[in-house]
Amino acid sequence: ALASRRHNGFAFGSEVADQPRHEHLTLIGDMRTAMAENEFVPFFQPKLELVSGQIVGAEALLRWQHPTRGLVPPGTFIPFAEQTGFIREITPWLLATIIQQSAEWHRAGLSLVTSINISTLDLTGRQLVIETGRLLREHGLPPDLICLEITESALMDDPEVALRHLGELAALGVKLSIDDYGSGQASLGYVQRLPVHELKIDRAFVDKVDCRGKSAAIIRSTILLCEELGLSVVAEGVETDAELDWLKRNRCGLVQGYRIAKPMPAAMFRQWLADRP
Ligand code: C2E
Ligand code: MG
Ligand code: MG
Ligand code: MG
């Protein structure tokens, strides 16, 4: 098991089961305060369309701007929030923040699809469906400017219920994306059953893809699959020129990764867009 990281006397990691109960409560309390104090900040990572060279969207990636620990990445608190159910408070808050931000960009004339990551627990009830519909109407945002990224594992708990709620979300007009495609199970079954709009090829396949071999074959066949099904395809975690060139040659639709830009705060992202040639 991963060692929990300890700061200020309490555990801060994803191994919830290993931590004493009072530590859970402290961290949950901390997260609640964080939300009230606006310490949760969405960063944005651009999605580049290769054929046009345009930035067509951005993925919101949550960070915790902690007063003493600095910028905390989601890998340290999202799994904890998922295991304790606190994610049920984070996702609606994030959704409201992102829809408001997206509506602002839309009014400013930017044509960007903003993606947010959702978790298993977000799909167990109808809250997300209701909230999404309400927020889109309230802000007058075209639904197809919002995309929900779902990891395959997010569907595993109660697939039937998750599928029904995803169907309802799709019926609102928002886009659905399968995240980390290829790293989980049952992916093709979900692609078949869900009104999915996009597949994101897991970073593990993109890594060193120029070296040929299995990853190259997997990516090429996923690009073909998406062509056949009329889906967008995104390569995640593009870090090098060689990876980018390979993806261009193999007609991958969209790319995301440090080679294009790292995730950044909203204002910086706007500036980055404005500075592009
Ligand atoms: P993800 O949705 O698959 O997001 C991609 C992750 O890869 C992000 O890490 C991003 O910063 C990182 N990344 C992007 N380009 C590169 C690259 O070129 N190289 C490398 N090495 N990494 C790259 P991040 O922001 O730490 O997020 C990790 C995961 O945490 C996300 O994976 C997502 O599953 C989860 N997450 C992030 N924000 C949220 C959120 O608001 N809600 C939920 N439920 N999960 C979130
Ligand atoms: Mg994602
Ligand atoms: Mg991913
Ligand atoms: Mg992931």
Automatic annotation (TrEMBL):
It comes from the Bacteria. Residues 24-277 form the EAL domain. Coiled coil: none annotated. This is GGDEF domain-containing protein. The chain holds residues 424 to 700 of 700 of the full protein.
